């Protein structure tokens, strides 16, 4: 992944260009809150917006994009199918519902939000169909480990183009990054700032002082230099702009490796093998 500027992209396995920096809108509320956040992000140069059926704000995302004056084709939109909507007979309807709420004819990326046991494989088969029909430009999964990716691979056909997982200096899972690289799957980080917890780390603070950057900017730059696309979430103008200002410096290899050593397998969200307990 070549890092250039905020308009830079990573090329997915099917040739689609996906921005490597985007805006996450988890917990952003429909109405002025999400409208303002997306407006500020687009003005700052962001061209990827990541939402999900579970977030309950697809309507707000669609409205903000329509009002932005920027062509739909120039904005990369991701959404995700929720746990209860998965299955052979319900996946197609879930996509149609998301598209209707967004006011769009297609999605750039559609992800299985969590790998529901006994359902995510049949859901994937339907996503393959929807992809072939052109309703989705790229398909992928979220919150998966290697064994789930291997199960999907065993189905044959179109494979995931993106894996979106919790990823930050305390949860790197380098073996998954390497698996994705070997199998042409773009790794993407949710909760890249560990819900703010990582910003108090002394090593990251020291590096931030060196470059005269914020701790968040150091972490997001680290993401990209690890080859990981990233979608920090914020509804605040200053933070949205700050998160995008990471293209005028470069971490040294030693600094990247030093941050890598912070990993201790800390999760802020559910484990991909035990998430049903979390959401029950």
Automatic annotation (TrEMBL):
**Keyword hit for Nucleotide-binding:** no
Q: Which SUPFAM superfamilies match?
A: NAD(P)-linked oxidoreductase
Annotated active site: 55
Decide whether keyword Ribonucleoprotein is in the record. no
**Coiled-coil stretches, from where to where?**
none
| Binding residues for substrate | 113
Query: InterPro entries, from UniProt?
Result: AKR, Aldo/ket_reductase_CS, NAD(P)_OxRdtase_dom_sf, NADP_OxRdtase_dom
NADP-dependent oxidoreductase domain mapped to chain residues = 26-263
Q: What is its EC number?
A: 1.1.-.-
A GO molecular-function annotation: oxidoreductase activity, acting on the CH-OH group of donors, NAD or NADP as acceptor
Q: What are the protein's UniProt keywords? A: NADP, Oxidoreductase
Q: Which PROSITE patterns match?
A: ALDOKETO_REDUCTASE_1, ALDOKETO_REDUCTASE_3
Residues the UniProt record annotates as site (Lowers pKa of active site Tyr): 80
Query: Which family, according to UniProt?
Result: Belongs to the aldo/keto reductase family.
Q: Record's PANTHER family?
A: 2,5-DIKETO-D-GLUCONIC ACID REDUCTASE, NADP-DEPENDENT OXIDOREDUCTASE DOMAIN-CONTAINING PROTEIN
Designated name of the protein: Aldo/keto reductase family protein
């Amino acid at each position: 992944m070549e890092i250039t500027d905020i308009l830079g992209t990573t090329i997915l396995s099917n040739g689609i260009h996906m921005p490597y920096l985007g805006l996450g809108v988890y917990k952003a509320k429909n109405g002025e809150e999400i409208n303002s956040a997306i407006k500020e992000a687009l003005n700052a140069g962001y061209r990827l917006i990541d939402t999900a059926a579970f977030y309950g704000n697809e309507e707000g995302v669609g409205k903000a994009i329509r009002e932005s004056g920027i062509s739909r084709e120039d904005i990369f939109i991701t959404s995700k199918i929720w746990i209860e909507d998965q299955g052979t007979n319900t996946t197609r309807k879930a996509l149609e519902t998301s598209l209707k709420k967004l006011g769009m004819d297609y999605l750039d990326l559609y992800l299985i939000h969590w790998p529901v046991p006994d359902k995510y494989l049949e859901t994937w088969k339907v996503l393959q169909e929807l992809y072939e029909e052109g309703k989705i430009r790229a398909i992928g999964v979220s919150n998966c480990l290697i064994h789930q990716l291997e199960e999907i691979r065993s189905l044959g056909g179109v494979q995931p183009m993106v894996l979106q997982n919790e990823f930050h200096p305390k949860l790197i899972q380098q073996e998954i990054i390497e698996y994705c690289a070997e199998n042409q799957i773009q790794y993407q980080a949710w909760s890249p700032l560990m819900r703010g917890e990582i910003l108090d780390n002394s090593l990251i603070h020291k590096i931030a002082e060196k470059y005269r950057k914020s701790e968040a900017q150091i972490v997001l730059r680290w993401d990209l230099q690890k080859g990981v696309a990233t979608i920090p979430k914020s509804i605040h103008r200053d933070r949205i702009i700050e998160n995008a200002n990471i293209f005028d410096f470069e971490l040294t290899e030693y600094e990247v490796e030093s941050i890598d050593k912070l990993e201790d397998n800390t999760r802020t969200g559910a484990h991909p093998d035990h998430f049903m307990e979390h959401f029950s």
